[in-house]
Amino acid sequence: MLWLFALIAGVLFGLYYGLAALGLNLIFGVMRMVNLAHGDVIMLGGFAAVLLFDRFGVNPLVTVLLVIPPSLLVGYLTYYLLGRRVQRSRDPEMMSLVMFFGVSQVIEAVAVIAFGNNEASITSAVFGARPFSIAGQGVPGAWLVSAGVGLVALLLLFLYLYRTSLGRATRAIMSSPDEARAVGVNPDRISALTFGIGVGLAAIAGILSLFMIGGTTPSEGVDLTVTAFAVIVLGGLGSPMGTFLGGIVFGLALMFTQTFAPAWSGFAPFAILLAIMLLRPTGLLGRTVRSV
Amino acid sequence: MSSIAQRLRAGAGAVGRRPRRQVVGDVLLVVVPPAGFLVASLVYNNQLLLLTMMVYVALAQGLNVIFGFTGYLPFGYVGFFGAGAYGTALSVHFLHAPIALAILLGGLAGLLVAALLSPLLRLTGAYFAIASLAAAEALYYLISNPQLTAVTNGPYGVNLASVYNSGAAYLAAVVLVGVAMLCVVWVRRSHFGMALRAIRADPLAARLAGVNVVRARTIAWLISATLAGLAGAIYAWAVSVFYPEAVFDLSISVFAIVFALFGGVGTVLGPLLGAVILYGVYNYIGVSQPQDFQLIYGVLIVLIVLFLPNGLLSIRLRRLWRGR
Q1: Per CATH, the architecture of A10-116+138-279 is what?
Q2: Nearest residue on chain A to B142, alpha-carbon basis
């Protein structure tokens, strides 16, 4: 029943990958900016959980709540200090890509100086030592917790976007910034708030990444950003809900190749990504982007 | 639209009868940088550092051809570099090609990978950037696959010690710098470069003015990839022992992008200056404290984008305009 395990693990990892990519996609959807420091924020989230657990014995699930206020603040300030200026440049999409690479380098360097170059981790026994049984397959409790947190985050984001006035303003900016401005939406305020939410989602994903992909190191940011990119392109850029579909496709592809062709597990997700981009460049649920 | 057509025609005409000063300037732009590197090797004894700097000059200029003149930013640019390195290594191992031919075959490998990936040019903006990154990652995982050890030696890397010759590799890199400068000068001055700039300004108008948009972009893409392939080939020869993760390292793409941007994309001199200055600073600081260097470098990148988005060369122009 290997395939059943791969199926279950693929869906659980997919929900985690969806969460890990959600913030990146939300920021892109609203600001048309690519936050290349996304993976480094995930890394910082992991370190926050490890430090709080080691020093004060804080349960990682509590840390999930604790990282939200500082993330909102950091994201808010980042937008006003860096994002707004680059958004008004000649080529915001490309310039933001390069600028946030710089930010990513700074975060990585500061993390090495602060935490050293060692791996930091929390024992997965925090979420129960015995595996849970789903359809006869043993699944670690931490995987279920991560998938659950991913689902809750998706639900809250959905409620925010579709049931609040701020969310409506956010969607207005996503579909047409000029028209949104014309009807009185303040794009700076919405963008800053969105940046905060995006950073917060990344930090939460970082806490869970301790249990899904193992311990965290300062240099893992770039790999995480690349993975998050792959996921959001699968689901469609600028489509937050599609991100979870992309995550599940990515998770399934990863788990099935890891189970049946471990030598190809690195190659397969990117090959699938390329195939989807060439056959359906808008992603699975995305909007039209093709031109000329 | 008609004005673009006129400019195109005027541009084509201008190629034929250009002022002598400009021709002399162009020749100097192609000849002086390689000559400078030749002289530098006599004065400064860290040849591998200079060679790596030349490789980055070629990469920054290659990136300039595609990014500076068409606006397409390939984040996976390193894929062509890696393809060139492996193309050369495999030519030496399996075809027993002489090294000069093997390096040309490395450039050909970059060209072929680019031809294979040319459908990616249908995408735009961040989509294109990310798709090219995915392509480079896929190529890396394909080459480092343990099941392909018989062909590529998988994750265990390649050894070119049998053809190692540091002096000749240095000369090859000097030639490469000349070729890269020549490509950019040609793109900058030719009818073809004018067409690229017209496409960048307004693809639809350019097409109406009779420019074959798809063909022009594809040619720029192939030139850019061939330069990266040659750079990878010469780098592979110079270091002679390397692992797949070293020649498919994403930071190679990013360095090329940052060097080109720092100097100024779309210019002839900018990427050269960017690579020489920033790679020089990199090594000056990087030798003592890697993370301090990374911190300074990161801050520098942010500052460039915020305050000098058009690169170093724009400072000079701005001052000239103010003077008038």
Answers
A1: Orthogonal Bundle (1.10)
A2: A267
